[in-house]
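Try it yourself: sequence plus iron/sulfur cluster, in.
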Amino acid sequence: MNRIIGSIGGSLKENVKKAKVMLLPYCAKPTWCDYRHTDDCGECGGCTVGDLYRMAYERGMIPITITSFEMLRDVLRWCGENGYTYIGHCCYEFYEKRHEIFKKAKEWGANGVLIDIIGTTCYDLGIEEEEKAYHGEFQVELDLYVEDSEKILSVKEKIGERNGKNKKEKPIPAEPLKDFIPEYYKIPKVVPGPEEDRTRLPIVKEKSKDIGFIRGKLVSWEEALEEAVDLTLSAERPTLIVGPLVLWSWNGESKKKAELIRRLKDLLPNLNVHILPDYRPKNKNFDPSREVDPPNPHLSILHGKHDLTLMIGVHCYRTDFVIRLLKKHTDTKIVTLCSLYGHPDADVSLSGTDPGRLKTFVERVRRELK
Ligand code: SF4
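Structure, out:
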């Protein structure tokens, strides 16, 4: 296919099939987009980067926007360390000038496929623009070949197509949390579930589930628990964001967590429960007193002037994004009850929050209230 710039370290088909990471260039995002210089995307439908994010998620891949050359190098090294194959999007000129980095990535263990992009690149505009692009400051907007990418990705299985299953089952709300779902909310056909591996860059080198973080400092799980309980009890207007991993009844774990959240709400009448049922933008058609708009999570927190935000059941990559936006736009303190390795950017983060640990958290709150 003529959109392919190259397949590095393996055949095209083999690399696409194995690809775990999708790299997108920031220069294909509109200059007005809040996400242009971040590694994420709100999938608002405003540009083709959102289409590629969706395609990646549908195939269980991790999409990452590359915002500078240094970031590209770090991400490729991370791919190598984890044995991940990537699909990247860049212009021919970039590949010609910087092909060494892709050779290096192969030595690190990261094979990949590069797909061309559309438009006037920084290389067409001279050395000054090229320099800006290197540092992530290029102002021109390029575009992606969406249809070609879809064809290229067609050799890759979509989540839910395994075992002959073409469709995911329609999500069912967790019984104890039904009251928190607004009456007008139309349950979508599919939502991101636990099978979608969207774990982001391993910012937490310490891959343990027995740890916690207090303002970025690695601490024991117990210490983090104490701090999280203190913050919860001292907050005047706490909000709990319940994400798709708990709001929907996937399995025994999500059901037990839903019951415990209900118990927490019964213990703390001032706790606002806001749902984040999936990650599609709501485009202002949402009630900020009950829901969270995925691209603008801060709107709900600002709306109720909430001083503490707890998060549970939100995929790790999205949790990082929510933390970033809450910090940028609000003064709220943030506690994450993460089922994986925790989030150092939160004020407090507990790792490995399974139903047993969530129960410990709820019980500790109950005890302290006495
Ligand atoms: S889809 Fe929307 S949020 Fe995502 S990069 Fe494009 S304009 Fe920005």
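One thing you can check immediately is this: The chain is about 35% helix and 15% strand.
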